[in-house]
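Possible regression after last week's pipeline update?

I re-ran a chain I had predicted before the update to compare outputs. Posting the input and the new output here so someone can diff against the archived version. Not blocking, just want to make sure nothing changed silently.
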Amino acid sequence: MQELGLASPFWVIVLVWLAKVIWLVIICVFLAWLGIRALDALMPYIDKRQRIGESPVATGLFIAGFFILVGLVVHGAATTPTVFGGSLLSYFFDFRQLGILAVSFVISLLIGVAIFHIVDKLTPKIPFKNINKDGVAVGIYIFGYLIFFGLILHAALTTSL
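New output (post-update):
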Protein backbone atom coordinates (compact mmCIF):
# COMPACT_ATOMS: atom_id res chain seq x y z
CA MET A 1 0.00 0.00 0.00
CA GLN A 2 1.40 3.38 -0.97
CA GLU A 3 2.17 5.77 1.86
CA LEU A 4 1.32 9.43 1.80
CA GLY A 5 3.89 11.73 3.34
CA LEU A 6 6.41 14.51 2.83
CA ALA A 7 8.15 12.57 0.04
CA SER A 8 4.93 12.64 -2.01
CA PRO A 9 4.55 15.43 -4.57
CA PHE A 10 2.52 18.40 -3.36
CA TRP A 11 -0.14 17.95 -6.05
CA VAL A 12 -0.72 14.35 -4.91
CA ILE A 13 -1.18 15.48 -1.33
CA VAL A 14 -3.64 18.19 -2.45
CA LEU A 15 -5.65 15.74 -4.57
CA VAL A 16 -5.81 13.19 -1.77
CA TRP A 17 -6.81 15.92 0.70
CA LEU A 18 -9.54 17.08 -1.69
CA ALA A 19 -10.80 13.51 -2.06
CA LYS A 20 -10.93 13.17 1.73
CA VAL A 21 -12.89 16.43 2.04
CA ILE A 22 -15.41 15.13 -0.50
CA TRP A 23 -15.60 11.79 1.34
CA LEU A 24 -16.27 13.51 4.69
CA VAL A 25 -18.88 15.80 3.13
CA ILE A 26 -20.71 12.75 1.73
CA ILE A 27 -20.67 11.11 5.17
CA CYS A 28 -21.96 14.31 6.78
CA VAL A 29 -24.74 14.69 4.21
CA PHE A 30 -25.82 11.16 5.09
CA LEU A 31 -25.72 11.99 8.83
CA ALA A 32 -27.71 15.20 8.27
CA TRP A 33 -30.29 13.25 6.28
CA LEU A 34 -30.54 10.73 9.16
CA GLY A 35 -30.91 13.62 11.60
CA ILE A 36 -33.71 15.17 9.58
CA ARG A 37 -35.47 11.80 9.41
CA ALA A 38 -35.03 11.43 13.18
CA LEU A 39 -36.54 14.86 13.83
CA ASP A 40 -39.40 14.06 11.45
CA ALA A 41 -40.09 10.92 13.50
CA LEU A 42 -39.75 12.69 16.86
CA MET A 43 -41.98 15.63 15.87
CA PRO A 44 -44.57 14.19 13.47
CA TYR A 45 -47.11 16.92 14.23
CA ILE A 46 -45.22 19.43 12.05
CA ASP A 47 -45.95 19.02 8.33
CA LYS A 48 -42.55 20.29 7.25
CA ARG A 49 -42.45 19.45 3.56
CA GLN A 50 -46.00 20.53 2.82
CA ARG A 51 -45.87 23.76 4.84
CA ILE A 52 -42.52 24.93 3.44
CA GLY A 53 -43.78 24.55 -0.12
CA GLU A 54 -46.72 26.86 0.62
CA SER A 55 -44.58 29.94 1.18
CA PRO A 56 -41.75 31.43 -0.87
CA VAL A 57 -40.29 32.90 2.34
CA ALA A 58 -40.29 29.47 4.00
CA THR A 59 -38.67 27.98 0.92
CA GLY A 60 -36.02 30.70 0.98
CA LEU A 61 -35.33 30.05 4.65
CA PHE A 62 -35.00 26.33 3.94
CA ILE A 63 -32.52 26.99 1.13
CA ALA A 64 -30.56 29.46 3.30
CA GLY A 65 -30.38 26.95 6.14
CA PHE A 66 -29.25 24.28 3.71
CA PHE A 67 -26.44 26.50 2.39
CA ILE A 68 -25.29 27.30 5.93
CA LEU A 69 -25.33 23.57 6.75
CA VAL A 70 -23.27 22.77 3.65
CA GLY A 71 -20.86 25.63 4.38
CA LEU A 72 -20.27 24.45 7.93
CA VAL A 73 -19.79 20.85 6.78
CA VAL A 74 -17.38 21.79 3.98
CA HIS A 75 -15.41 24.06 6.31
CA GLY A 76 -15.26 21.35 8.97
CA ALA A 77 -14.18 18.72 6.44
CA ALA A 78 -11.53 21.03 4.98
CA THR A 79 -10.07 21.94 8.38
CA THR A 80 -10.32 18.56 10.10
CA PRO A 81 -7.04 17.53 11.72
CA THR A 82 -5.08 15.28 9.38
CA VAL A 83 -1.98 13.19 9.87
CA PHE A 84 0.12 12.30 6.84
CA GLY A 85 2.55 9.44 6.83
CA GLY A 86 0.32 6.38 6.77
CA SER A 87 -1.31 4.40 4.02
CA LEU A 88 -3.93 5.90 1.75
CA LEU A 89 -6.52 3.46 3.07
CA SER A 90 -5.95 4.48 6.68
CA TYR A 91 -6.07 8.14 5.62
CA PHE A 92 -9.60 7.78 4.20
CA PHE A 93 -10.91 5.25 6.68
CA ASP A 94 -9.66 6.69 9.95
CA PHE A 95 -12.13 4.80 12.12
CA ARG A 96 -11.24 6.86 15.18
CA GLN A 97 -12.21 10.06 13.36
CA LEU A 98 -15.31 8.49 11.78
CA GLY A 99 -16.34 7.08 15.17
CA ILE A 100 -15.93 10.46 16.84
CA LEU A 101 -17.99 12.02 14.05
CA ALA A 102 -20.83 9.50 14.41
CA VAL A 103 -20.89 9.42 18.22
CA SER A 104 -20.64 13.20 18.50
CA PHE A 105 -23.47 13.66 16.02
CA VAL A 106 -25.78 11.15 17.71
CA ILE A 107 -25.10 12.49 21.21
CA SER A 108 -25.56 16.10 20.06
CA LEU A 109 -28.80 15.19 18.31
CA LEU A 110 -30.15 13.44 21.41
CA ILE A 111 -29.12 16.34 23.65
CA GLY A 112 -30.71 18.84 21.25
CA VAL A 113 -33.99 16.90 21.08
CA ALA A 114 -34.05 16.44 24.87
CA ILE A 115 -33.46 20.15 25.48
CA PHE A 116 -36.12 21.00 22.88
CA HIS A 117 -38.69 18.87 24.71
CA ILE A 118 -37.66 20.21 28.12
CA VAL A 119 -38.03 23.80 26.93
CA ASP A 120 -41.39 22.90 25.38
CA LYS A 121 -42.59 21.53 28.74
CA LEU A 122 -41.15 24.47 30.72
CA THR A 123 -42.92 27.03 28.53
CA PRO A 124 -46.55 25.85 28.42
CA LYS A 125 -47.78 29.29 27.32
CA ILE A 126 -45.66 29.00 24.16
CA PRO A 127 -47.16 25.99 22.36
CA PHE A 128 -44.48 24.75 19.97
CA LYS A 129 -47.12 22.90 17.92
CA ASN A 130 -48.52 26.25 16.77
CA ILE A 131 -45.70 26.70 14.27
CA ASN A 132 -47.54 24.22 12.05
CA LYS A 133 -50.19 26.89 11.42
CA ASP A 134 -47.88 29.04 9.31
CA GLY A 135 -45.51 28.00 6.52
CA VAL A 136 -43.04 30.78 7.36
CA ALA A 137 -42.87 29.60 10.98
CA VAL A 138 -42.12 26.07 9.77
CA GLY A 139 -39.45 27.49 7.43
CA ILE A 140 -37.80 29.30 10.33
CA TYR A 141 -37.96 26.11 12.41
CA ILE A 142 -36.31 24.07 9.63
CA PHE A 143 -33.75 26.85 9.09
CA GLY A 144 -32.81 26.57 12.76
CA TYR A 145 -32.34 22.85 12.82
CA LEU A 146 -30.36 22.81 9.59
CA ILE A 147 -27.95 25.25 11.25
CA PHE A 148 -27.99 23.05 14.37
CA PHE A 149 -26.94 20.05 12.25
CA GLY A 150 -24.25 22.10 10.54
CA LEU A 151 -22.81 23.23 13.86
CA ILE A 152 -22.73 19.79 15.46
CA LEU A 153 -21.21 18.22 12.35
CA HIS A 154 -18.62 21.01 12.15
CA ALA A 155 -17.73 20.52 15.80
CA ALA A 156 -17.40 16.76 15.31
CA LEU A 157 -15.22 17.21 12.23
CA THR A 158 -12.84 19.67 13.86
CA THR A 159 -12.42 17.72 17.11
CA SER A 160 -8.75 16.86 17.52
CA LEU A 161 -8.99 13.82 19.77
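Follow-up from reviewer: compared with the archived run. The radius of gyration is 19 Å. Marking as no regression found.
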